[in-house]
Amino acid sequence: MSELTGKVALVTGGSRGIGAATAKRLAGAGAAVALTYVEAADRARKVAEEIEADGGRAAVVQADLTRPGAAAEAVERTVRELGRIDILVNNAGFLAYGPLAEVTDEELDRVLAVDVRSVFLAARAAARHMGDGGRIISIGSCFNGRVPGANFVLQATAKSALVGLTKGLARELGPRGITATVVDPGPIDTDMNPAGGETADFQRSLTALGRYGEAEDVAAAVVYLAGPGGRYVTGTALAVDGGYTA
Questions:
Q1: β-pair partners for 8
Q2: What residues does 89 pair with on adjacent strands?
Q3: Is the dihedral of CA 12, 16, 18, 23 positive or negative?
Q4: Which of the 8 DSSP states describes residue 191?
Q5: Where is the Ketoreductase domain (predicted)?
């Protein structure tokens, strides 16, 4: 029996990159998985089909997390379609990059809506259904521990907010046996931040290992925290950053 057999997970932003790798890795560990998407329905269905082809259960949920009710609706859809929710992975987010003076009010609202507000609302909704052994895992950023230069104010603001939110969740939900953690990736080779991008050499130079990581590296950390090995880990962040914050 796999370590997550009988569990149900929801992964927001699960149609690509870290989210897709996490959804498939959770399914490989035995969990039934729901994954959200905004517009890329074909990509989300492909991830679900790959999970099902390997003998797993998957559900696809359309959810625009900039809309206030979408996060809670995604949780409720998961419960209706898969029967319960044990693991919430808040992966959806925007890569926010640019000078402070050029950040628009609309960009600020959008990033905070998805990276902070939707996490709060999804966690609140999921906690109503979770029991002992529940897991709330949010994908943060290496900018929680180190901001290497200008143009990252909005990104650092949004992702750092996850740390305080997670610590609060850990204290609030710990008596019920529910853990809350953050996984902070460093430079990860995805379509949002490709290893061949214009800033890639700079990002590599900031890591101790001198290279980009892969989405699977982050997914492995999420599965560890979601499984029995993570039962005594809560209220903290796990860096998967190649030594970026060393």
A1: 32
A2: 11, 137
A3: positive
A4: S
A5: 7-191
Which H/E stretch holds residue 87? strand 87-90
CATH code of the domain made up of 8-240: 3.40.50.720
The per-residue pLDDT for range 31-40, each reduced to its tens digit, is 999 999 999 8
Tokens of 191: 């379509």
**Using one digit for the tens of pLDDT, what is the confidence trace for 161-194?**
999 999 999 999 999 999 999 999 999 999 989 9
Per-residue model confidence as pLDDT tens digits over 59-92: 999 999 999 899 999 999 999 999 999 999 999 9
Closest CA to 86 of 244, 185, 202, 227: 227
How far is the C-alpha of 226 from the C-alpha of 216, rounded, in Å? 15
How far is it, in rounded angstroms, from Cα 144 to Cα 155? 9
241: Cβ contacts below 8 Å, ≥ 6 apart: 142, 184, 185, 186, 187, 207, 213
Tokens 């992975």 belong to which residue? 89
Q: CA–CA separation, 66 vs 161, rounded Å?
A: 17
Per-domain boundaries in the chain: 8-240
Say if residues 36 and 62 touch (Cβ distance below 8 Å).
yes
> How far is the C-alpha of 130 from the C-alpha of 85, rounded, in Å?
6
What pTM does this model have? Answer: 0.97
Whole-Å CA distances, 41 to 44, 95, 224 = 5, 21, 28
With residue 246 as reference, give the H or E element that holds it: none
